[in-house]
Design brief:
275 residues; alpha+beta; 6 helices; 16 strands; 37% strand; globular; GLPGLI; GLPGLI family protein
Length: 275
Amino acid sequence: MKKIICLLALYAGSFYHSQTNRFIYELQYRKDGSEDYRHNLMNLDISPKSVKFYDKKFADYDSINKKANTAVSRYSTKTDQVIERAPNSFKNKWYRDFFEYFVVNTNDEMNWKLLQETQQYNGYKLQKATTDFGGRTWNAWFCNEVNIKEGPYKFRGLPGLIFILEDTDKNFIYKLISNKKLDTEYDTKEFVETHYGKPALPISNEKFNKYIEEFYENPTRTLAESIKNGQKTSFKNESIETIEELNSKRAMLQNGIKSRYIYIEKDKEPSFKTK
């Protein structure tokens, strides 16, 4: 059978001599109990110096910007899954965009249980493994033919590349759909290490959650200051001139904050208290 994902060119002995190997995953994800999935394409870039995982649209927009020689198109993550790590490491830099730009350093070593169960996927034989991570139980299908111990998001450490990954409730499903080699090490400094020049501020996950929770409690505070200073402001292109008009948007702003991300790590998500 012809292998749709052409990975046979990646030999174990020569893989890390290449500049950047990009693996593209289709991600389907939903809130617990929901029937509706969100959909994103995600890039896993592996080079001799780093492993990076991020929304594919970042690279798409970056290509437009490089041709224009300016940041004419900007994108913000829809997944909260922008990750950087050194090769062969479980220590991650988790870049997080919420009005400001942050980086959370995490140590995410995983204990995998390898099973004898196998399946065929696009002509490749995959083996099953399971682990518990982030408050969920995960099933991974990896390929021994591809000696790359990496996978989507923070998942890695198996004897081969992860092709399929999903939690047991199927709230997050990743499938490898394509790959390509890039001649140069792909420069991501505009959208991973910084957010279009905005530096990543180091923060703990606890403080990051507190920051979001405080924003949720008082979502109009920044706009309110502008109005108090005699300035006009707007929300969704609607002019707002008084505090009363602004307060009428409070529930809508809170809903936007609460639903912005579907948190993959349930045990690290913020707590939104309703009054």
